[in-house]
């Protein structure tokens, strides 16, 4: 197989018409990922941090995503080279790592994601990432070095202040602001001026380092517009469970508005 694969997430980031749109996938049903793809999202983050999903289920989600045309990125709960290896060989186009607070942590993450000489990821080209051996070793390695993305989450004041330096680490491809954890760590609300100032500075410094930065927001045009106005290049619009719950609640509300005798 000589054809070069490209990262759908990276391609979406270069779209001049608007931000890359994604959502979290927390439900273990494969239909959830299929519906996310059919909706037209650019990428989906399979959430192994805040869901009880197994690694095997995540691998199945990745397979559905690749076939359905949405970029699969996996948020792992913590840096573990073995988990990174298995997730990427399952075909994930990227890793999202929570709570990256320092350059040293970012460098360790970048090493786990990249092959030698850039890092320590092992070679397993007979996995899905290598089309079960149908892709050449050269292409498998190229995709892992050039196309796979590492997204570092900024979720504390220390991380926000170091955002520019973290973004400048070779192998870190993007940052994501975790406003909920950042504000909670400071004992403040997300709208508190101290928190918004920390975020604004992190966005500024990340952009200055030449890297894209994103956020987790709501499922409305207003929310996405606010994200764009702040400077985010990609945004996560809610999650599969909340989108399902919101649609179900709206359906029931509409149904309850109907009464006998009209």
TrEMBL record:
It comes from the Bacteria. The keyword RNA-binding does not apply. One of its GO terms (molecular function) is aldehyde-lyase activity. Keywords: Lyase, Metal-binding. Pfam families: HpcH_HpaI. One of its GO terms (cellular component) is cytoplasm. Residues 22-214 form the HpcH/HpaI aldolase/citrate lyase domain. Belongs to the HpcH/HpaI aldolase family. This is 4-hydroxy-2-oxoheptanedioate aldolase. It comes from Plantibacter flavus.
């Amino acid at each position: 197989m000589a054809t070069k694969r490209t990262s759908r997430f990276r391609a979406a980031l270069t779209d001049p018409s608007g931000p890359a749109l994604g959502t979290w996938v927390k439900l273990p049903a494969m239909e959830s990922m299929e519906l996310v793809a059919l909706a037209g999202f650019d990428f989906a983050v399979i959430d192994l941090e805040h869901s009880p999903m197994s690694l095997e289920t995540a691998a199945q989600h990745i397979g559905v995503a690749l076939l359905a045309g949405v970029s699969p990125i996996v948020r792992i709960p913590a840096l573990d080279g073995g988990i990174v290896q298995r997730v990427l060989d399952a075909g994930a186009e990227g890793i999202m790592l929570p709570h990256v607070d320092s350059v040293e942590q970012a460098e360790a993450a970048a090493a786990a994601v990249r092959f030698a000489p850039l890092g320590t990821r092992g070679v397993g080209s007979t996995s899905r990432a290598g089309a079960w051996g149908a892709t050449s070793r050269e292409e498998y390695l190229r995709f892992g070095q050039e196309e796979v993305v590492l997204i570092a989450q900024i979720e504390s004041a220390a991380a926000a202040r170091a955002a520019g330096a973290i973004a400048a680490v070779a192998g870190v491809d993007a940052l994501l602001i975790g406003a909920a954890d950042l504000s909670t760590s400071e004992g403040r609300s997300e709208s508190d001026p101290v928190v918004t100032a920390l975020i604004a500075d992190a966005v500024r410094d990340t952009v200055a380092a030449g890297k894209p930065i994103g956020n987790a927001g709501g499922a409305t045009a207003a929310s996405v517009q606010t994200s764009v106005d702040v400077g985010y290049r990609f945004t996560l619009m809610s999650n599969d469970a909340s989108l399902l719950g919101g649609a179900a609640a709206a359906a029931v509300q509409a149904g309850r508005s109907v009464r006998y005798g009209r």
